[in-house]
Write a structure and sequence with these properties.
The complex is a heterodimer of chains A (279) and B (265). With 279 residues, chain A is α/β, with parallel strands linked by helices. Chain A contains 10 helices and 10 strands. Chain A has 2 domains: 151 residues, Rossmann fold (3-Layer(aba) Sandwich); 69 residues, no CATH class. The N and C termini of chain A lie far apart (57 Å). The chains are: A alpha/beta (279), B mainly alpha (265). Bound molecules: adenosine-5'-triphosphate and magnesium ion. Chain A: This is Energy-coupling factor ABC transporter ATP-binding protein.
Chain lengths: 279, 265
């Protein structure tokens, strides 16, 4: 049996006494250096899970362990040392006035000596290919660049797990691709556990394991391949297959013939023009 | 770049004045503002004016640029001068304009006040021209540090200032976006009676405030997630250091102040 890194034991959570339960009896395990994707419809409780992991919220029932430590009021600062989190909106997590200052923020909080700080800032900005932007202010960066800085500031504190809560949701396809590439590279290099949260089925293909959430409960834990065999059921719990895939289905149903079922814009384009040139 | 409106009008550079520790600059300006009021002779005014103009030249920022930045203030300076001409009735009558007597005392006082005003504005704008807002924030944090003893939240104040600085351009961009969005829905900000235009601001402000609050909440969460727990035990990346050029500059300034008192009448 492998040592678990993050463990949820029968966790239930609601935002207030009168509010409905957002998570209902959720249990799962995430292992070190594993990539787990958490997917679910809007409001299924994904972000809540992320916030519970590093003690931004506490469950009313059940227990959460991170690296063997029970997450509670007394342990949150230790837990947060191991957990790096990137949120959805690139603007609202950029604290510093420049790229360099933003990466420094987490290090300053931990009381890292200045010289070591400078070294770590250099390495982590290099890791995300943002080392040419040291002194740039956030309003001179694109969304994707800001997210890369956010990832760099997480890497600088050398966490054991990185959680991306829809970190690419506000980016264009190119930005998304760049971020995912950066992340996978870094994960390979540093042996981190990686938790990516999304409601886009496109983004789970590379993960080791997928946790599908539905209405606050774990609906399925499986490999991406297994998840994709359940298209119909996924659709029923509000996880729509991507627009392109649907469009392709429609096109096929009116008689177009495709070689592969396209999953991205480019693939569809490719299929369409090959189809057209064969006509 | 459309960042002309960013507060302060910091012009990056490598001049001596740019490289001075921001605390040195702030302290010198602080005392300059006080000592300007001690000048009372042509020589003492000459000394302070020379100090200000030479400082402005040393920044290596184009003088025309600096003076253009003072445009709104020119009006005030000239206005002050004329106000004195009209109101002050000291000394002898120099000449009459349309049977309105202009006194010599009025000319002297008017020029003095206007000159002081001009020097104050020039010197303080040299600070914002050569010091980035974040340096000023750091300097304020450092200068106010002793107030920590009486529980004054120095660190929090500095953090608040730096976060405001960070978000001003973001909120500006957002204002522009919202106003375009509202304009495309037919809200008219630019024409019509004042009352209508003021009313047109409401659909601009409401979404702006809503989003600012949402930003604040998310930012607070992100800061906590990144381990922020207040000023206690924090280290700092940006470092302020008093070096020899600061000491020499301070010494020079002290000499000028001594000169000021020697040339007073
Ligand atoms: N601060 C809050 N106060 C009260 N209710 C909240 C709060 N944040 C979230 N909720 C509710 O909790 C439920 C789960 O929210 P959560 O943010 O975890 O969903 P999510 O799966 O991340 O959704 P999304 O895909 O939209 O990000 C939602 O029904 C939401 O309305
Ligand atoms: Mg969410």
């Amino acid at each position: 049996m492998r040592e678990s890194f993050i463990e949820f034991r029968n966790v239930s959570f609601r935002y207030g006494e009168e509010q409905p339960w957002v998570l209902k009896d959720v249990s799962f395990v995430i292992y070190p250096d594993e990539w787990v994707a958490i997917i679910g419809h809007n409001g299924s409780g994904k972000s809540t899970i992320a916030k519970l992991i590093n003690g931004l919220l506490f469950p009313q029932e059940g227990e959460i362990f991170v690296d063997g430590v029970h997450v509670n009021q007394d342990s949150i600062w230790d837990v947060r040392k191991n957990v790096g989190m990137v949120f959805q909106n690139p603007d609202n997590q950029f604290v510093g006035t420049t790229v360099r200052d933003d990466v420094a923020f987490g290090l300053e909080n931990r009381g890292i000596p200045r010289q070591e700080m400078i070294d770590r800032i250099n390495t982590s900005l290099t890791a995300v290919a943002m080392n040419d932007y040291f002194l740039h202010e956030p309003h001179r960066l694109s969304g994707g660049q800001k997210q890369r800085v956010a990832i760099a500031s997480i890497l600088a504190i050398s966490p054991k797990v990185v959680i991306l809560d829809e970190a690419t949701a506000m980016l264009d396809p190119k930005g998304k691709l760049e971020i995912m590439r950066t992340i996978t590279e870094v994960q390979d290099k540093l042996d981190l556990a990686l938790v990516t949260i999304t409601h886009d089925l496109n983004e789970i293909t590379l993960a080791d394991r997928v946790i599908v959430m539905n209405e606050g409960q774990v609906w399925l834990e499986a490999t991406p391949r297994e998840v994709f065999t359940k298209k119909e059921e996924l659709r029923r719990i509000g996880l729509d297959t991507p627009f392109i895939s649907k469009l392709a289905d429609e096109l096929i149903s009116i008689g177009l013939v495709f070689n592969n079922h396209p999953l991205s814009h480019e693939e569809l384009l490719e299929e369409l023009w090959t189809y057209h040139s064969k006509m | 770049m459309n960042n002309a409106f960013i507060i302060g009008q910091y012009v990056p550079g490598e001049s001596l004045i740019h490289r001075l520790d921001p605390r040195t600059k702030i302290m010198i300006i602080f005392f300059f503002v006080i000592f300007v009021f001690f000048a009372n002779s042509a020589a003492s005014y000459g000394l302070l004016t020379a100090f200000s103009i030479i400082s402005a030249i040393v920044t290596r920022i184009k003088l025309s640029y600096i003076f253009k930045g003072l445009t709104p203030v020119w009006f005030l300076i000239v206005f002050t001068f004329f106000l004195h001409l009209i109101v002050t009735r000291e000394g002898e009558v120099l000449f009459e304009v349309l049977s309105f007597p202009i006194y010599s005392g009025a000319v002297i006082q008017g020029s003095e006040i206007s000159l002081r005003f001009f020097l104050l504005i020039l010197v303080t704008s040299l600070l914002t021209l050569t010091t980035s807002p974040i340096e000023i924030t750091d300097a304020i944090e450092s200068l106010l540090h002793p107030l920590k003893r009486i529980k004054f939240p120095v660190h929090e104040l500095a953090l608040m200032m730096s976060i405001s600085l960070r978000f001003i351009p973001t909120l500006m961009q957002e204002t522009e976006k919202i106003s375009k969005a509202q304009a495309s829905r037919g809200v008219d900000f630019k024409t019509g009676p004042i009352k209508d235009r003021v009313q047109a601001i409401v659909p601009l402000l409401v979404p702006l405030f809503v989003s600012a609050f949402k930003r604040a909440e998310e930012l607070a969460m992100a800061m906590e997630a990144r381990g922020y727990q207040g000023g206690e035990g924090r280290t700092k990346l940006r470092e302020l250091r008093i070096v020899n050029r600061d000491r020499y500059t301070a010494l020079l300034f002290i000499l000028i102040i001594i000169g000021l008192f020697l040339t007073r009448s």
